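Table S2 (text version). Query chain:
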Amino acid sequence: MTTRVKIAAVGDILMWRRQIHSARMGKEQRYSFDEMFREVAPYLQSADLTIGNLETTLSGRESRYQRTNPKTGWPMFNCPDELAGALKRAGFDVLTTANNHCMDRGVQGLKRTLRVLDQHQLAHTGTFRTREEAQSFLVKEVNGIKFGILAYTYGTNRIPVPKSKPWLVNRIRKNKIIHDLKRLRPNVDVIIVALHFGQEFKRHPNASQRALVRALFQHGADIILGAHPHVLQPMYVKQMENAVGLKKKFVIYSLGNFISDRMLNSLHADSGVIVNINVEKNNQGQVRISDVHYVPTWVHKPVRQGKLRFCVLPIRSALVNPSLALSQRDRRTMRRVWKNTTSHLKGKPL
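Corresponding structure-token output:
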């Protein structure tokens, strides 16, 4: 008997000031983010294991959730806790938390984020509360297939991690990742590595990204999910001889933004994908990637009842959904995004 697992993976889950304002319910300090994910929830829920990158902290109520770092001028993110519940209801199982914004509210914000995710039964990896937690691995067994999930970031936006607690954040250090792969490999069937790396708004991976991916494949990584550039970068299925782990490996160098406000007025930053990776295990215990396809998405920003809204749309089904009442301009934009995405990624769009 062959068992199958369908993985769904998305990129950056960002919450800018206007997004948080759009989720506020009246004048009360209550928020609802469910509408943002309503149209894509069926795609996330239909998977057996759904993974995303949480690029905000959940650091508690504030009068101003988006701040500016006075030293760098870069944004510093926090979001109301209601986001976690919305992500769980939308279908997420695992959120990676190792990214350049994980320290935006310091150590306490990092730790509180993980407590909130725990309260909503959302598994997480990449940042940790204790040394012991950092030394353990996230393993999810789904339909008899064991998946080990690792996550690392290139940095923390120049916000220092305390020298006495370097284990708070998994940093991209090749030797460290290889060591983790070797420790994890005997205990799982498939290793997924989430890497927050690359250059923002660049649509192709640089040489260091490609070199790191090659090294990690050679040492046991099976699936690599990239994030950080905020635009899509290509994906590849690689057949490897004498490979550690699966012989067929998969990488997408950047999944793009799953949800965000527009960045640098770039249409590419409003575009993302839900990547589906199908994994099979046969009677002999052999595991393989059987198929990969993807759903192109676009962040729609309609104005309803005088208020700006945000909604992630699966492009193909949204174009034939009359209830969305899309304008001709929206339709032209979505067709353009579809063309950009499918020509850039190739493969099998849905």
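Notes on Table S2: The chain has a mean pLDDT of 96. Residues 328-345 form the longest helix (18 residues).
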